[in-house]
Design a protein that fits this description.
- The chain is an alpha+beta fold.
- Among the domains are: 1-39 and 201-351, Multidrug efflux transporter AcrB transmembrane fold (Up-down Bundle), CATH 1.20.1640; 66-171, Alpha-Beta Plaits (2-Layer Sandwich), CATH 3.30.70.1320; 426-515, Ribosomal protein S10 (Alpha-Beta Plaits), CATH 3.30.70.600.
- It has 22 helices and eleven strands.
- The strands form three sheets. Strands 1, 2, 3, 4 and 5 form a five-stranded antiparallel β-sheet that branches.
- Strand 8 and strand 9 form a beta hairpin.
- The chain starts with 5 loop residues before the first helix and ends in a 5-residue tail after the last helix.
- Residues 351-356 and 721-736 have low confidence and may be disordered.
Length: 736
């Protein structure tokens, strides 16, 4: 009798102490939810900006002269000019009503229409009005401003009035995020349950993975709220917890529960079936979970608060899902026994039937194993072709052009930017010096303004603000382009490398830094480029070591890494083709901005690498289990892939369905993340698992398990205890 591995011992303890395991988990989840709700979530602010843009933002915070929040209102008419009495009457009515609106401190219009400020378009048909809000109540009172603007629109239907500002954009965006998150929560549970019903054919068995995964998600959201007071959360942290938690949590429970049902159907006594499941699929879940945790820990090396918050939050939910599967599930199974089959669904096959012997997968696997070289070269060629678009990937921080076109603030942003180029995404040149009111400093600032306009890449109005002490100045310089395209980047480069050194950088003792949407994107991309090799080396290195120790083979981890990199590359390529090139964007309900969300490539690599390892470890562990029992590698590959086909297919369908929900949301960040993950899982569960993995293992044969003599000291890891007879279904050939 062999000593049980760690997962086997944990499962046995949980089965014997089912009350402690079950009620301990429930108490943990309840405390996490209650405490997390009580303390709330602290959101990240400007500290998330890297590089020069981050330094400029800190200078702005130090100066404390940013002024009141401002909403921009664009009044536009195709037939009336600003100088026409009818146009001026509309503008006057708007100004008068706004000045009487609670929360508005001042309304600024061009000279001749009221207080100085705002701007008139060159064609004379558009007027830009600045509305200053009371800073302390701006977020709460912005709804009143929006209501006033709506009233003026109704009163003057012949004139267009657009409103855009940080507060109105945040209000509309926050409402969309909340609505999308609720939609994802509502849809994910019934869709996942329906898939589990199809997989198990019984209501009780189908409910266990879903309930366990959702409890892990709730607990992780509560824990993430607590952690956010040390490491601030981003606005996508909670959706990512739901996204990853439901997919991984259901998969782990599915692997475990399906194996236990198979062992019972093969004739093992209930406790023996549970012990074997804990020591086999349980061990695979443990290794898979650890691999995912290692991958996600790589996000912490990006040295950015957005990545750190997402990394910690997803690590928490994956750890919770893994622990729940290894403890709560065996506790429930030991208590329920065969009652887990209750709630049978008519016309669906029984849980214990060999869903793995699928005719489809048999039809695929036969030619793959007969022609392994052709299958390997063909599948690699397909993956490389899919990856080609990734070579042209261009990333940018999400901006208003990436928001849904139906948003009122997006319509306003585009209208204002078209009329006054760069006005809504200016570069902020921040200057710190001992005396910025000196003649030399003022001359340098004036020179910067002149040269900026003369360059043709920057435009008026260029606004200059200065603090009361005259030690800080901020110059808003509208840039060409939409804020993230090549024109904007070229303008930023000219500003930073040519204009600033020739003007304001010559002010004695001056420190100058540039921030803004374009600068933030440029600096974030530079940070990612510098940190990505470190993250890649960390994730790949630790995953290699974990798989090396687990399977005592140097070939298995190398092959796993190559296969996963091919999968990630192909997913990148499809993502670029759809979201950057715009192939099929109308089908997904968005309009391509020509960019990929800047944080997504690194995040997707980490998540995809971890999720890909789920299937890989699950299948390889089955193969290793048979090889350890004396079965030839080729036969073990065939039997294992066929015996796991139903489980892996169901797991993949769950992941694709959950990720697909997010691909259907409105915000581009969630849409890209969901789509990228869904495509990766689809590629993994078909091309990688069905073709490339078996063909590569057939070609390698015994070399799959090669371990250099100088590594013989590594401990031996066996998947399973052998005190029970091998199930008959594993001794019989899988195919005739």
């Amino acid at each position: 009798m062999k000593k049980a591995n760690l997962a086997g011992r944990v499962g046995s303890w949980s089965a014997r102490n089912w009350k402690k395991a079950l009620f301990g988990w429930l108490a943990f989840a309840l405390v996490a939810v209650v405490v997390g709700s009580a303390v709330g979530t602290r959101m990240a602010g400007n500290e998330s900006s890297p590089g020069e843009a981050g330094r400029a933002e800190k200078m702005l915070d130090t100066a404390d002269f940013q002024g009141p929040p401002v909403e921009n209102l664009l009044i536009q008419s195709s037939r009336l000019k600003v100088t026409d009495p009818a146009f001026r009457a509309v503008a006057g009515d708007l100004v008068q009503r706004l000045e009487a609106t609670d929360g508005v401190s001042r309304v600024r219009t061009p000279i001749g229409l009221g207080q100085a400020g705002g701007a008139v378009a060159e064609n004379g048909h558009s007027l830009l009005v600045d509305v200053e809000l009371v800073e302390k109540t701006a977020e709460k009172r912005i709804a009143g401003v929006e209501s006033t603007v709506a009233q003026v629109r109704t009163a003057h239907p012949g004139v267009k009035i657009f409103e855009f500002g940080e507060n109105s954009a945040n209000r509309e965006g926050d409402k969309a995020v909340a609505a999308d998150f609720r939609r994802a929560e509502i849809l994910s549970l019934p869709i996942t349950l329906l898939i589990m019903l199809a997989a198990f054919g019984a209501l009780v068995a189908a409910s266990l993975p879903v309930v366990l995964a959702f409890s892990a998600v709730l607990a992780a959201i509560g824990l993430s709220a607590m952690i956010s007071h040390v490491l601030p959360a981003s606005d996508i942290t909670a959706p990512m917890v739901l996204l990853i938690g439901m997919a991984v949590g259901v998969d782990y429970s599915l692997f475990y529960l399906r194996r236990e049902r198979e062992e019972r159907a093969a004739g093992l006594e209930a406790h023996a079936a549970l012990r074997r499941t804990a020591a086999t699929s349980g061990q695979a879940v443990l290794i898979s979970g650890l691999t995912v945790l290692i991958a996600m820990a790589g996000l912490l090396l990006a040295n950015d608060s957005t990545f750190s918050s997402m990394g910690v939050a997803t690590m928490v939910v994956v750890a919770g899902a893994m622990i729940g599967s290894l403890t709560v599930l065996p506790a429930l199974l030991s208590r329920l026994g065969d009652k887990v089959e209750r709630g049978r669904i008519p016309f669906l096959r029984r849980n214990g039937e060999r869903s793995g012997d699928s005719r489809l997968w048999s039809a695929i696997l036969h030619p793959v194993l007969r022609h392994p070289l052709i299958s390997t070269l063909g599948s690699v060629a397909v993956l490389l072709c899919l990856a080609i678009p990734a070579l042209s990937m261009r990333t940018a921080i999400p901006s208003m052009v990436d928001m849904p076109a139906s948003f009122q603030t997006v319509k306003a942003y585009k209208a204002i930017n078209a009329t006054f180029p760069g006005a809504q995404a200016p570069a902020d040149v921040v200057i710190q010096a001992s005396d910025l009111r000196s003649a030399q400093a003022q001359a340098a600032i004036a020179s910067l303004r002149r040269q900026a306009v003369a360059s043709g890449k920057m435009f008026e109005p260029i606004d200059v603000r200065m603090n009361a002490e005259g030690t800080f100045a901020a110059i808003e310089v509208p840039l060409a382009g939409d804020g993230t395209n090549e024109a904007s980047m070229a303008a930023l480069s000219t500003l930073r490398k040519d204009l600033i050194p020739a003007t304001v950088a010559k002010i004695p003792g001056a420190t100058v830094a540039v921030t803004g949407e374009t600068a933030g994107t440029s600096d974030f991309n530079a940070m990612i480029k510098a940190r990505m090799p470190i993250v890649f080396a960390f994730v790949l290195g630790l995953a290699f070591l974990l798989l090396l120790v687990t399977f005592r083979s140097i070939v298995v981890p190398i092959k796993a890494i190559i296969l996963n990199l091919l999968s990630v590359g192909a997913s990148y390529g499809v993502l670029v083709a759809v979201f950057q090139w715009g192939w099929g964007d109308s089908l997904l309900g968005f309009q391509s901005s020509g960019n990929i969300v800047s944080w997504l490539p690194l995040f997707l690599f980490v998540i995809l690498f971890g999720l890909s390892m789920d299937y890989h470890v699950f299948i390889i562990s089955r193969i290793k289990e048979l090889v350890d029992r004396g079965v030839e590698t080729e036969t073990a590959v065939e039997r294992s892939i066929l015996s796991t086909a139903g489980t892996v297919t169901a797991a993949a369908v769950v992941m694709v369905a959950v990720f697909g929900i997010f691909a259907g949301l409105r915000l581009i960040e969630m849409k890209e993340a969901g789509f990228g993950l869904a495509i990766a899982v689809l590629i993994d569960a078909t091309i990688i698992r069905g073709v490339l993995l078996p063909s590569a293992m057939k070609l390698l044969g015994r070399w799959n398990w090669y371990l250099p003599s100088w590594l013989e000291w590594l401990p031996t890891t066996r998947f399973g205890r052998h005190e029970q007879p091998v199930a008959k279904r594993e001794l019989a050939p899988a195919l005739d």
